[in-house]
Amino acid sequence: MKFIKLLSSAYVAGSLRHPHEGAIPVADDEAERLFENGTAEDVTDGFSADQIDEAQAEPITAVAPAPPVNAEAAAEQSQAGTEKPTKTQAAKPASTKE
User: In Å, what is the CA distance from 86 to each residue of 24, 76, 90?
Assistant: First the structure.
């Protein structure tokens, strides 16, 4: 396992991560991929052996997006604006003042 510091935003273990997050513990193969891409640098030397042993590598997570809470309401919203306005809803011409 290695600790990395991102140089730019990158996908780490399946999640988009950003440089402001600081040192991130990752598996060796994930670290090598990021080093080869030039998106991370190795900062493992800044940690003690105890810290390295206690840290857990970021798990690889790829979660499918959840469906809308109320699918019927979402379908209705997609139809918004397709009906013609009624006579009272129609835009009135701007009055001109001379």
Answer: 58, 19, 6
